[in-house]
Amino acid sequence: MATLCFQSPTKPISYFHPKSKPSPPLSTKVSLFRCRASVQTLVAVEPEPVFTSVKTFAPATVANLGPGFDFLGCAVDGLGDHVTLRVDPSVRAGEVLISEITGTTTKLTTNPLRNCAGIAAIATMKMLGIRSVGLSLDLHKGLPLGSGLGSSAASAAAAAVAVNEIFGRKLGKGELVLAGLESEAKVSGYHADNIAPAIMGGFVLIRSYEPLDLKPLRFPEDKELFFVLVSPEFEAPTKKMRAALPTEIPMVHHVWNSSQAAALVAAVLEGDAAMLGKALSSDKVVEPTRAPLIPGMEAVKKAALEGGAFGCTISGAGPTAVAVVDAAEKGEEVGERMVEAFMRGGNLKAVACVKKLDKIGARLVSSISR
Protein backbone atom coordinates (compact mmCIF):
# COMPACT_ATOMS: atom_id res chain seq x y z
CA MET A 1 0.00 0.00 0.00
CA ALA A 2 1.25 3.49 -0.83
CA THR A 3 2.51 5.62 2.03
CA LEU A 4 1.89 9.33 2.37
CA CYS A 5 4.69 11.25 4.05
CA PHE A 6 4.54 14.89 4.96
CA GLN A 7 6.23 17.40 7.17
CA SER A 8 4.96 17.68 10.71
CA PRO A 9 3.35 21.06 11.43
CA THR A 10 5.14 21.26 14.74
CA LYS A 11 8.81 22.03 15.12
CA PRO A 12 10.84 20.19 17.75
CA ILE A 13 9.81 21.65 21.08
CA SER A 14 11.90 21.66 24.22
CA TYR A 15 10.43 22.45 27.61
CA PHE A 16 13.06 24.01 29.86
CA HIS A 17 13.38 25.81 33.14
CA PRO A 18 14.33 29.47 32.49
CA LYS A 19 17.23 29.30 34.95
CA SER A 20 18.61 25.98 33.81
CA LYS A 21 21.10 25.30 31.05
CA PRO A 22 19.48 24.11 27.85
CA SER A 23 21.66 21.00 27.63
CA PRO A 24 20.70 18.42 28.67
CA PRO A 25 17.10 19.77 28.64
CA LEU A 26 13.88 18.50 30.12
CA SER A 27 12.38 18.06 26.72
CA THR A 28 9.80 16.48 24.52
CA LYS A 29 10.99 16.21 20.93
CA VAL A 30 8.69 15.87 17.95
CA SER A 31 9.96 14.35 14.71
CA LEU A 32 10.17 16.81 11.83
CA PHE A 33 8.55 14.25 9.55
CA ARG A 34 5.54 12.09 10.21
CA CYS A 35 4.88 9.18 7.88
CA ARG A 36 1.39 7.68 7.75
CA ALA A 37 -0.29 5.13 5.55
CA SER A 38 -2.80 6.66 3.16
CA VAL A 39 -6.48 5.99 3.75
CA GLN A 40 -7.66 2.43 3.22
CA THR A 41 -10.85 0.98 1.80
CA LEU A 42 -13.12 0.30 4.78
CA VAL A 43 -16.14 -1.36 3.17
CA ALA A 44 -16.23 -4.89 1.76
CA VAL A 45 -18.48 -4.14 -1.22
CA GLU A 46 -18.49 -0.96 -3.28
CA PRO A 47 -21.76 0.84 -2.45
CA GLU A 48 -24.06 2.21 -5.11
CA PRO A 49 -25.21 5.83 -4.98
CA VAL A 50 -28.56 6.31 -3.27
CA PHE A 51 -28.89 9.92 -4.48
CA THR A 52 -28.15 11.55 -7.80
CA SER A 53 -27.27 14.80 -6.03
CA VAL A 54 -26.68 16.05 -2.49
CA LYS A 55 -25.96 19.41 -0.90
CA THR A 56 -24.05 19.61 2.38
CA PHE A 57 -22.94 22.29 4.82
CA ALA A 58 -19.98 22.40 7.20
CA PRO A 59 -19.56 25.07 9.89
CA ALA A 60 -16.75 27.44 10.74
CA THR A 61 -14.55 26.40 13.63
CA VAL A 62 -12.45 28.01 16.34
CA ALA A 63 -9.24 26.04 16.85
CA ASN A 64 -6.83 26.10 19.80
CA LEU A 65 -9.19 28.01 22.10
CA GLY A 66 -6.15 29.67 23.65
CA PRO A 67 -4.08 27.04 25.49
CA GLY A 68 -5.40 24.07 23.50
CA PHE A 69 -3.00 24.39 20.56
CA ASP A 70 -3.70 21.59 18.06
CA PHE A 71 -5.86 19.58 20.49
CA LEU A 72 -8.98 21.66 21.24
CA GLY A 73 -11.53 23.20 18.92
CA CYS A 74 -15.23 23.93 18.51
CA ALA A 75 -17.77 24.61 15.77
CA VAL A 76 -19.74 27.86 15.51
CA ASP A 77 -23.23 28.22 14.12
CA GLY A 78 -24.29 30.00 10.95
CA LEU A 79 -20.98 30.43 9.10
CA GLY A 80 -19.48 27.86 6.77
CA ASP A 81 -19.13 26.29 3.32
CA HIS A 82 -21.55 24.39 1.08
CA VAL A 83 -20.80 21.55 -1.32
CA THR A 84 -23.12 20.26 -4.03
CA LEU A 85 -22.14 16.81 -5.30
CA ARG A 86 -23.63 14.98 -8.27
CA VAL A 87 -23.27 11.58 -9.90
CA ASP A 88 -21.85 12.55 -13.29
CA PRO A 89 -21.57 10.00 -16.13
CA SER A 90 -19.25 12.40 -17.99
CA VAL A 91 -16.62 12.12 -15.24
CA ARG A 92 -14.26 9.15 -15.36
CA ALA A 93 -15.28 6.41 -12.93
CA GLY A 94 -13.61 6.71 -9.53
CA GLU A 95 -12.72 10.37 -10.03
CA VAL A 96 -14.00 13.78 -8.92
CA LEU A 97 -14.36 16.87 -11.08
CA ILE A 98 -14.60 20.28 -9.39
CA SER A 99 -16.90 22.11 -11.78
CA GLU A 100 -17.44 25.42 -9.99
CA ILE A 101 -16.20 27.50 -7.06
CA THR A 102 -18.27 30.47 -5.89
CA GLY A 103 -18.62 32.64 -2.80
CA THR A 104 -16.05 34.60 -0.84
CA THR A 105 -13.19 33.57 -3.13
CA THR A 106 -12.81 32.24 -6.65
CA LYS A 107 -9.00 32.06 -6.70
CA LEU A 108 -8.89 28.47 -5.44
CA THR A 109 -7.70 25.82 -7.87
CA THR A 110 -10.23 23.42 -9.36
CA ASN A 111 -7.59 20.69 -9.47
CA PRO A 112 -9.09 18.12 -7.06
CA LEU A 113 -5.62 16.95 -6.03
CA ARG A 114 -4.77 20.44 -4.76
CA ASN A 115 -8.16 21.65 -3.53
CA CYS A 116 -9.32 21.01 0.05
CA ALA A 117 -12.72 19.75 -0.99
CA GLY A 118 -11.29 17.63 -3.79
CA ILE A 119 -8.67 15.95 -1.59
CA ALA A 120 -11.24 15.08 1.08
CA ALA A 121 -13.73 13.83 -1.51
CA ILE A 122 -11.11 11.56 -3.07
CA ALA A 123 -10.04 10.24 0.34
CA THR A 124 -13.66 9.42 1.20
CA MET A 125 -14.16 7.68 -2.13
CA LYS A 126 -11.06 5.58 -1.41
CA MET A 127 -12.47 4.61 1.98
CA LEU A 128 -15.70 3.53 0.29
CA GLY A 129 -13.88 1.76 -2.54
CA ILE A 130 -15.64 3.80 -5.23
CA ARG A 131 -14.36 2.71 -8.65
CA SER A 132 -17.51 2.60 -10.80
CA VAL A 133 -18.92 6.12 -10.44
CA GLY A 134 -17.64 9.58 -11.32
CA LEU A 135 -18.68 12.67 -9.35
CA SER A 136 -18.80 16.41 -10.05
CA LEU A 137 -18.55 18.88 -7.19
CA ASP A 138 -19.50 22.54 -6.73
CA LEU A 139 -17.96 24.42 -3.80
CA HIS A 140 -19.56 27.53 -2.37
CA LYS A 141 -17.21 29.31 0.01
CA GLY A 142 -18.93 31.07 2.87
CA LEU A 143 -15.63 31.57 4.70
CA PRO A 144 -12.72 33.71 3.54
CA LEU A 145 -9.27 32.20 3.16
CA GLY A 146 -6.75 32.72 5.95
CA SER A 147 -9.40 33.96 8.36
CA GLY A 148 -8.68 31.72 11.34
CA LEU A 149 -12.16 30.20 11.11
CA GLY A 150 -11.24 26.84 9.62
CA SER A 151 -11.90 27.71 5.98
CA SER A 152 -10.00 24.73 4.56
CA ALA A 153 -11.55 22.37 7.10
CA ALA A 154 -15.08 23.52 6.27
CA SER A 155 -14.54 22.75 2.58
CA ALA A 156 -13.01 19.36 3.40
CA ALA A 157 -15.75 18.46 5.88
CA ALA A 158 -18.58 19.40 3.53
CA ALA A 159 -17.01 17.38 0.72
CA ALA A 160 -16.33 14.29 2.83
CA VAL A 161 -19.87 14.28 4.21
CA ALA A 162 -21.31 14.80 0.70
CA VAL A 163 -19.51 11.73 -0.67
CA ASN A 164 -20.56 9.68 2.34
CA GLU A 165 -24.19 10.75 2.00
CA ILE A 166 -24.47 10.15 -1.73
CA PHE A 167 -23.36 6.53 -1.17
CA GLY A 168 -25.71 5.83 1.73
CA ARG A 169 -23.79 7.03 4.79
CA LYS A 170 -21.53 3.99 5.19
CA LEU A 171 -18.79 5.77 7.17
CA GLY A 172 -18.86 7.13 10.71
CA LYS A 173 -17.75 10.60 11.77
CA GLY A 174 -14.37 9.37 12.97
CA GLU A 175 -13.58 7.97 9.53
CA LEU A 176 -14.72 11.20 7.89
CA VAL A 177 -12.33 13.14 10.13
CA LEU A 178 -9.50 10.95 8.82
CA ALA A 179 -10.55 11.76 5.26
CA GLY A 180 -10.57 15.46 6.14
CA LEU A 181 -7.13 15.14 7.70
CA GLU A 182 -5.77 14.02 4.32
CA SER A 183 -6.80 17.45 3.06
CA GLU A 184 -5.58 19.42 6.07
CA ALA A 185 -2.18 17.69 5.93
CA LYS A 186 -1.58 18.90 2.40
CA VAL A 187 -2.95 22.40 2.88
CA SER A 188 -2.19 23.65 6.40
CA GLY A 189 -0.65 20.81 8.42
CA TYR A 190 -1.66 17.63 10.19
CA HIS A 191 -3.94 19.00 12.89
CA ALA A 192 -7.51 18.01 13.68
CA ASP A 193 -8.69 20.90 15.85
CA ASN A 194 -10.61 22.38 12.89
CA ILE A 195 -11.67 19.33 10.90
CA ALA A 196 -12.86 17.31 13.92
CA PRO A 197 -15.36 19.91 15.23
CA ALA A 198 -16.33 20.81 11.64
CA ILE A 199 -17.53 17.23 11.15
CA MET A 200 -18.58 16.31 14.68
CA GLY A 201 -19.93 19.65 15.94
CA GLY A 202 -19.58 21.09 19.44
CA PHE A 203 -16.30 21.03 21.34
CA VAL A 204 -13.78 18.31 20.51
CA LEU A 205 -10.63 17.24 22.34
CA ILE A 206 -7.95 15.45 20.31
CA ARG A 207 -6.49 13.11 22.93
CA SER A 208 -4.07 11.47 20.52
CA TYR A 209 -3.01 11.72 16.89
CA GLU A 210 -1.30 8.35 16.56
CA PRO A 211 -3.70 6.65 16.73
CA LEU A 212 -6.31 9.35 16.26
CA ASP A 213 -8.52 9.52 19.36
CA LEU A 214 -11.27 12.14 19.48
CA LYS A 215 -13.28 13.05 22.57
CA PRO A 216 -16.47 15.12 22.12
CA LEU A 217 -17.03 17.52 25.03
CA ARG A 218 -20.70 18.27 25.69
CA PHE A 219 -21.56 21.79 26.74
CA PRO A 220 -24.75 21.64 28.89
CA GLU A 221 -27.98 22.38 27.01
CA ASP A 222 -29.30 24.67 29.77
CA LYS A 223 -26.26 26.97 29.76
CA GLU A 224 -25.71 30.00 27.53
CA LEU A 225 -22.55 30.54 25.48
CA PHE A 226 -21.88 33.01 22.67
CA PHE A 227 -18.80 33.64 20.56
CA VAL A 228 -17.97 37.14 19.38
CA LEU A 229 -16.04 36.74 16.13
CA VAL A 230 -14.28 39.82 14.78
CA SER A 231 -12.51 39.43 11.43
CA PRO A 232 -10.25 42.19 10.13
CA GLU A 233 -9.38 42.80 6.48
CA PHE A 234 -6.09 41.02 6.84
CA GLU A 235 -4.95 37.56 5.78
CA ALA A 236 -2.91 35.36 8.10
CA PRO A 237 -1.88 32.21 6.20
CA THR A 238 -1.79 29.21 8.52
CA LYS A 239 1.64 28.05 7.34
CA LYS A 240 3.14 31.49 8.00
CA MET A 241 1.58 31.69 11.45
CA ARG A 242 2.76 28.19 12.33
CA ALA A 243 6.28 29.11 11.26
CA ALA A 244 6.27 31.83 13.92
CA LEU A 245 5.83 29.36 16.77
CA PRO A 246 8.65 28.95 19.30
CA THR A 247 10.93 25.93 19.10
CA GLU A 248 11.28 25.78 22.89
CA ILE A 249 9.30 27.05 25.85
CA PRO A 250 9.98 27.44 29.58
CA MET A 251 8.77 24.56 31.72
CA VAL A 252 6.76 27.03 33.80
CA HIS A 253 4.81 28.02 30.64
CA HIS A 254 4.23 24.39 29.76
CA VAL A 255 2.80 23.74 33.22
CA TRP A 256 0.69 26.91 33.06
CA ASN A 257 -0.77 26.12 29.66
CA SER A 258 -1.50 22.54 30.68
CA SER A 259 -3.45 23.72 33.71
CA GLN A 260 -5.37 26.28 31.64
CA ALA A 261 -6.28 23.68 29.02
CA ALA A 262 -7.54 21.38 31.77
CA ALA A 263 -9.57 24.25 33.23
CA LEU A 264 -11.03 24.95 29.80
CA VAL A 265 -12.19 21.34 29.42
CA ALA A 266 -13.74 21.46 32.90
CA ALA A 267 -15.47 24.73 32.04
CA VAL A 268 -16.99 23.22 28.88
CA LEU A 269 -18.32 20.18 30.72
CA GLU A 270 -19.72 22.31 33.56
CA GLY A 271 -21.14 24.99 31.26
CA ASP A 272 -19.11 27.68 33.01
CA ALA A 273 -18.70 30.44 30.43
CA ALA A 274 -16.77 32.67 32.82
CA MET A 275 -14.12 30.05 33.56
CA LEU A 276 -14.02 29.07 29.89
CA GLY A 277 -13.26 32.66 28.95
CA LYS A 278 -10.62 33.05 31.62
CA ALA A 279 -8.81 29.88 30.49
CA LEU A 280 -9.17 30.80 26.82
CA SER A 281 -7.46 34.15 27.52
CA SER A 282 -4.51 32.64 29.35
CA ASP A 283 -2.25 31.14 26.67
CA LYS A 284 1.43 31.90 27.33
CA VAL A 285 2.91 29.90 24.45
CA VAL A 286 1.23 30.50 21.08
CA GLU A 287 -0.73 33.74 21.38
CA PRO A 288 2.28 35.83 22.51
CA THR A 289 4.15 34.92 19.32
CA ARG A 290 1.22 35.36 16.94
CA ALA A 291 -0.51 38.45 18.34
CA PRO A 292 2.27 40.86 17.22
CA LEU A 293 1.80 39.59 13.63
CA ILE A 294 -1.85 40.72 13.62
CA PRO A 295 -2.05 44.54 13.63
CA GLY A 296 -4.09 45.76 16.59
CA MET A 297 -4.65 42.33 18.16
CA GLU A 298 -3.42 43.32 21.61
CA ALA A 299 -5.69 46.38 21.62
CA VAL A 300 -8.61 44.22 20.48
CA LYS A 301 -8.15 41.77 23.34
CA LYS A 302 -7.96 44.61 25.84
CA ALA A 303 -11.12 46.17 24.41
CA ALA A 304 -12.99 42.87 24.62
CA LEU A 305 -12.09 42.31 28.27
CA GLU A 306 -12.84 45.91 29.23
CA GLY A 307 -16.19 45.57 27.44
CA GLY A 308 -17.23 42.68 29.65
CA ALA A 309 -16.14 39.59 27.72
CA PHE A 310 -15.09 36.65 29.86
CA GLY A 311 -12.08 36.10 27.64
CA CYS A 312 -10.54 36.77 24.25
CA THR A 313 -7.88 35.17 22.08
CA ILE A 314 -6.90 34.53 18.48
CA SER A 315 -9.16 32.13 16.60
CA GLY A 316 -6.94 29.44 15.12
CA ALA A 317 -3.98 31.01 13.35
CA GLY A 318 -5.85 34.32 13.07
CA PRO A 319 -6.46 37.06 12.22
CA THR A 320 -10.02 36.64 13.56
CA ALA A 321 -10.30 37.43 17.25
CA VAL A 322 -12.78 35.44 19.35
CA ALA A 323 -14.33 36.55 22.62
CA VAL A 324 -16.66 34.64 24.94
CA VAL A 325 -19.85 36.01 26.54
CA ASP A 326 -23.08 34.52 27.91
CA ALA A 327 -25.60 36.90 26.31
CA ALA A 328 -26.14 37.96 22.70
CA GLU A 329 -26.71 41.61 23.62
CA LYS A 330 -23.44 41.76 25.50
CA GLY A 331 -21.77 40.13 22.51
CA GLU A 332 -22.98 42.90 20.21
CA GLU A 333 -21.50 45.54 22.52
CA VAL A 334 -18.20 43.70 22.83
CA GLY A 335 -18.04 43.22 19.07
CA GLU A 336 -18.40 46.96 18.45
CA ARG A 337 -15.54 47.67 20.84
CA MET A 338 -13.34 45.08 19.15
CA VAL A 339 -14.05 46.47 15.67
CA GLU A 340 -13.12 49.96 16.88
CA ALA A 341 -9.94 48.60 18.44
CA PHE A 342 -8.83 46.94 15.19
CA MET A 343 -9.16 50.30 13.44
CA ARG A 344 -7.58 52.28 16.26
CA GLY A 345 -4.76 49.87 17.04
CA GLY A 346 -4.10 48.28 13.67
CA ASN A 347 -5.70 50.58 11.08
CA LEU A 348 -7.75 47.62 9.90
CA LYS A 349 -11.41 47.52 8.97
CA ALA A 350 -13.20 44.61 10.63
CA VAL A 351 -16.62 43.01 10.87
CA ALA A 352 -18.16 41.41 13.95
CA CYS A 353 -20.78 38.75 14.45
CA VAL A 354 -22.14 36.92 17.47
CA LYS A 355 -22.66 33.19 17.10
CA LYS A 356 -23.69 30.22 19.21
CA LEU A 357 -22.07 26.82 19.36
CA ASP A 358 -22.84 24.55 16.39
CA LYS A 359 -23.64 21.22 18.06
CA ILE A 360 -24.33 19.26 14.87
CA GLY A 361 -21.32 19.67 12.61
CA ALA A 362 -21.28 18.96 8.86
CA ARG A 363 -24.61 17.74 7.61
CA LEU A 364 -26.86 16.99 4.67
CA VAL A 365 -28.93 20.00 3.59
CA SER A 366 -30.86 18.55 0.64
CA SER A 367 -30.82 15.60 -1.73
CA ILE A 368 -32.34 14.25 -4.92
CA SER A 369 -33.08 10.53 -4.92
CA ARG A 370 -32.24 8.27 -7.84
TrEMBL record:
It catalyses: L-homoserine + ATP = O-phospho-L-homoserine + ADP + H(+). Belongs to the GHMP kinase family. Homoserine kinase subfamily. It comes from Brassica napus (Rape). SUPFAM superfamilies: GHMP Kinase, C-terminal domain, Ribosomal protein S5 domain 2-like. Pathway: Amino-acid biosynthesis; L-threonine biosynthesis; L-threonine from L-aspartate: step 4/5. One of its GO terms (biological process) is threonine biosynthetic process. Keywords: Amino-acid biosynthesis, ATP-binding, Kinase, Nucleotide-binding, Threonine biosynthesis, Transferase. Pfam families: GHMP_kinases_C (PF08544), GHMP_kinases_N (PF00288). The keyword Nucleotide-binding applies. The keyword Zinc does not apply. Residues 265-340 form the GHMP kinase C-terminal domain. Its EC number is 2.7.1.39. PROSITE patterns: GHMP_KINASES_ATP. Residues 123-202 form the GHMP kinase N-terminal domain. GO terms for molecular function: ATP binding; homoserine kinase activity. This is Homoserine kinase.
